[in-house]
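mind reviewing these tokens:
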Amino acid sequence: MPDRLSTLDASFLYIEDSVTPMHVGGVAIFDRPKSGFDYEQFLALIGQRLGYLPRYRQRVATVPGHLARPVWIDDVDFDLNYHVRRSALPAPGTDAQLFELVARLMSRPLDHERPLWEAYFVEGLAGDRVALVTKTHQSVVDGVGTIEIGQLILDPSPTEREPATDTWTPRRAPGRTQLLLDAVGETVQSPGALVENVRSASHAISAAEKFVGAVGTTVASALRTVTRPAPSGPLNTQVSGGRVFSVVRTALEDFRQVRAAHGGTVNDVVLAALAGALREWLLSRGSSMTSETTVRALVPLAVIDEETVEFSSASLVGNQVDAYLVDLPVGEPSPVLRLQHVGHAMAEHAASGRSVAARALLRVGGFAPATLHSLGARAASSFSGRLFNLVITNSPGPQVPMYAGQARMTEMFPVMPLLRNQALAIGVTSYDGGVYFGLNGDRKAVSDVDVLAGMIEDSLDELKGIDW
């Protein structure tokens, strides 16, 4: 039987275009160890572990006439050097130069004629650091059969080079005739699928309409929360092909202190800090605002499979990351009340009994946030853009150092994709005592994303400075 893409995965390919590439990214920064860490070592590390991720050596084959969804086939011309690329900044490279490079890399769609991922080994950073930039298409990562490649290459302790034992041999690619015969055979068993496949591919109908069957539970749970369109504002506009990327570095202890003083969760404090920053950013742009003004965030949250007693990585399938809609109270001038509003809004999810505590997520092997952000992007893409203003994903990571080979990772920034008519996406990851924000914005609509990044730090300082 052909390894056919699911309806959800195929939809990510259908709705992708040159200005809204459907890949999720990550930027990991490493200190170069005394023993060295170069491109060849990184290439070898990925090559040694690709055997655990067969999907990363497969490409998509389209069925003629779109009589069925595309299929995954082995890439008989797979070239690891094509996917793992070497780049460099003019030494000593600055963080600003790195993030400008990240913005340019993320704006480019992946080649659909090859396996849908890329990794860049970036040298030349000041302080003898290197960066790893990854791009993985949303159709690839499902959290069960395939995880994000950043999760595969990171370990909780330094590792020596593994012996090369992978003897992968690609299977022969099916020809057009075989693809058609397989599709016809499936159509005989399910005639209605033929009409749906042709219509979906031809018209690329909206994600919200297409994905109801695949993630109906998630969509229904969010729609119970809010049914009216999202507030209008500068965050909802036709995006261009360019991107800007900025980051924020904060300390996890600061969020814990605010939580300890007021209750709630670290995630509540993160959202409250973002609400305060968005308030100041909108005011700086001259946006009109009242005490009732809100910005609606789509916040994907990991949940437990209803048939699973205890959380495990196996329960992190695409429709087990609920996309929760939260109205951030940007019109509220008091940071105390903003935090209370956010805590109240998130309480329903916590009371559902399906939420996954941060400590449970940390039991997942490798650097799970890389995969969880990908699953969050999948969940977010299943909604009509009319329902929200921006996407915010927050995934807790391990509070111990992680390593790629002998190189210690010091920072990790998620890069969430922009959806059509959404000009800003924010990914948040906690790791080894820090909380790291990655802000991906449209180059025309949110050219001042670095200003917003600075306001996140100011908003957190405001929360910390409150006399409780």
Observations:
- The chain is about 35% helix and 25% strand.
- The longest helix spans residues 266-284.
- Confidence is low (pLDDT under 50) at residues 197-225, 304-319, 357-365.
- The two ends are 62 Å apart (CA to CA).
